[in-house]
Design brief:
Residues 83-104 are annotated as: Disordered. Its EC number is 1.14.13.149. The structure is a single chain. With 104 residues, the protein is α+β, with helices and mostly antiparallel strands. Helix content is 34%, strand content 19%. It contains two helices and three strands. The longest helix is centred in the last third of the chain and has 23 residues, at 81-103. The model has no long low-confidence stretch (mean pLDDT 84).
């Protein structure tokens, strides 16, 4: 049986595929993965998964991102000029109020 091995360098990193091992059961697969893939580089953890248990969804099977218009999520779709003018006017108002407080 073929087992796929995923390795994590440091805690918090993503696990990345580093190869596979041939083993009759999970216990042997874990041992072989540790020997073959855990000793060569600094390793925080290993994931060992039966190859036939790994599924894939690709672009032919699903439409990633959907068909809904979600352009509102990206800043490039907004008109920032009115907001910038409002911020500028607010800053002028604040500076004028501070100046008047200083004169009083």
């Amino acid at each position: 049986m073929i087992w796929e091995v995923f390795r994590q360098n440091q805690a918090g990193d993503y696990h990345t595929h580093c190869g596979n091992v041939h083993a009759p059961d999970r216990e042997m697969a874990l041992l072989f993965a540790e020997v073959q893939h855990g000793r060569r580089k600094p390793t925080n953890s290993l994931w060992v998964v039966p190859q036939d248990e790994i599924g894939e969804v690709d672009t032919e099977d699903a439409k990633f991102g959907g068909t809904t218009n979600k352009s509102y999520r990206f800043a490039r779709t907004y008109n920032v000029e009115p907001a910038a003018e409002e911020v500028e006017a607010s800053e002028k108002e604040l500076n004028e109020a501070e100046r008047k407080r200083g004169e009083a």
